[in-house]
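Example (one chain per record):
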Amino acid sequence: MKILVINPNTSEAITATIMAAARSAAPHVEVVGAHPSRGVTSVESHIEEAWGTIGILEQIDLAETSATPPDAYVIACFGDTGLAAAREAASTPVVGMTEAAIFTAVTLAHRFAIITMPSRTIAQSDRVVEALGIAHRCIVRAVDVAVAELEEGSGHLEEAFAAEARSAIDEDGAEAIILGCAGLADLVEPLSARLGVPVIDGVAAAVAFAAGVVAQKLTTSRNGAYGTVDGAPSAVELLR
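Predicted structure:
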C-alpha cells in the first residue's frame, strides 16, 4: 500500500516535518510526501488556499501519470485545502487531515477543541466543522503565530498551545484537543501528558484513516458530487 501525503505549500522543511508524523502513523505502509513545484510558502489566507489547491492538483496529476500511482492521498493542510477538487481529480481515495482529525475526536470525546494557527485561519477550521455538522460539539481557538514558525519543528510552541488547550478544557468543556496545523506532531506527547486528555495530530489521523479505507477496498464515489468531469484540463497543463 502506498499513500501520498501532499503539503500544499512549497516549504521543503515543513514537508519533512509532516512526513515524520505521517510515517509514524502507519509504519507498515509506504508513505511518501510531495509539495507543489511553485506557489506559496504557507497557506494562511483564502488567496493562499487558492494557490495551494492548484499545487495539490498539480501533484495529483503527476502522481496519477507516474509508474506507481498511490493507493490513496492525504491533504496535509488544516482546513482541508482543495479537498473536493482533489477527490474529483484522483482515481483513489483522498483524505483531508481536518476531517480525519474531527472523525477521530468524535470517536474519543463528546466535546473537543481545535487549536489552530494563526488566528485568521479560524475561518478555515470553522468551514470544515460547519460542513460536517459538528459545531455543537467543537470550539475553535488559535495561537497567533505564523506557519513559518514550524520550519524547524513545533516544540518551542508547547507553552502557547498548552495554555490555549487548558483554557479550552476549563472554559469550554473540551474533552479532547485537535492540533490545527500540519507540522505540530512534536506537541502530541508533551501535551497529552500535561493535559490528561487525547491530543490528536491531523496528519497522523489522516494517514491511518486512508490506510483503513484502502484496506477495505473502498474508493471515492463517482455517483454525484465527485464525478469525473470529461475534458477538464490538468493542473500540469494549466501551469505550463
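Caption: The two ends are 31 Å apart (CA to CA).
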